[in-house]
Amino acid sequence: MPAELTVLGLAGILLLVHVFAATHYKTQQYGVEWNMGARDEKTEPLNDIAGRLDRARGNFLETLPLAIIALGGVVVAGKATDLTAIAAWVWLGARVIYLPLYWAGVPKVRTYVWGVSLLTLLYALGVLLLG
User: Fold this and answer.
1) Per-residue pLDDT tens for 44-76?
2) CATH number of the domain that 41 lies in?
3) Are 39 and 106 in contact (CB under 8 A)?
4) Are 49 and 103 in contact (CB under 8 A)?
5) How far is 124 from 96, CA to CA, in rounded Å?
6) Nearest residue to 128 via CA among 85, 73, 66, 65
7) 37: domain range?
């Protein structure tokens, strides 16, 4: 299987980590009844950790479609190379590093790591579109 598809499969696991971490801390704050309910009631703002994990989850969900398009696209188009495989692994590594950085509230470095992940996807997207 192409490395790019392996990375996308692992990204699915990372997505679950994001979702469960954010939900765990939201449930700690709002309670099990909130979690198991319709969640229609107004709630107080999330505490710092729950808020950061929720934003990290949202950020991952915003960039995952681009990863699917770029990494899956190079495979489907027959344009996958060793460099697109490296880009895929670097993207995944950066996204794995990003979560604990955001969780801990580390400024700047988190943004640089996000930038690395974006550059790898832009590279793969460039390969897809420009060859």
Assistant:
1) 999 999 999 999 999 999 999 999 999 999 999
2) 1.20.120.550
3) no
4) yes
5) 19
6) 73
7) 3-130
Number of domains in the chain: 1
Task: State the amino acid at position 22 in one-letter form.
Answer: A
Two tokens, residue 111: 């943004």
pLDDT tens-digit map of 69-116: 999 999 999 999 999 999 999 999 999 999 999 999 999 999 999 999
Decide if pLDDT at 124 tops 90: yes
Q: Closest Cα partner for 92 from 64, 122, 65? A: 64
Residue 76's CB is within 10 A of a number of other CB atoms, namely 13
Cα dist. 9→6, 44, 60 in Å?
Answer: 5, 35, 14
Length of the chain: 131
CB 59 within 8 A of CB 114: yes
